[in-house]
Amino acid sequence: MGSLFISPKYQGNGIGSTLIEEMISYLEKRGIKEFCLDSGYKDAQKRWCRKFGNPYKIVKDYWGPGIDNMVWLCKI
Q1: What are the phi and psi torsion angles at 48 (to 5°)?
Q2: Which residues contact residue 63 at a Cβ distance below 8 angstroms, ignoring those fewer than 6 apart?
Q3: What is the number of other CB atoms lying within 10 angstroms of the CB of residue 41?
Q4: Local confidence pLDDT in tens for the 76 residues of the chain
Q5: C-beta atoms surrounding 37 within 10 Å
Q6: Which alpha helices (H) appear in the chain, and where do they start and end?
Q7: Across-strand partners of 39?
């Protein structure tokens, strides 16, 4: 998955979680044991931290001063 964006008016309804769960199911059926997820959006980073724990890697100022990119290595 290259990007995941849910329109703000539909956020909080489980749409993103459902898409990720389907992606995980798809990968699992194909024997894939892990995937990476990354984000530069602070709101998404908060959600991913709650869902997947601490990021595997934080790239400071990746998108500009004070805008970090976080990467999660997620096990299936």
Answers
A1: -65, -35
A2: 40, 69
A3: 14
A4: 667 889 999 988 999 889 999 999 999 999 999 999 999 989 889 989 999 999 999 999 999 999 999 999 999 9
A5: 19
A6: 15-29, 42-52
A7: 70
- The token duo for 15 is 């749409």
CB 48 within 8 A of CB 39: yes
- Give the separation between CA 4 and CA 16, rounded to whole angstroms: 7
Is 0.85 topped by the overall pTM?
no
Backbone angles phi, psi at 5, to 5 degrees: -135, 125
Cα–Cα distances (Å) from 55 to 29, 49, 67, in that order, read: 25, 7, 15
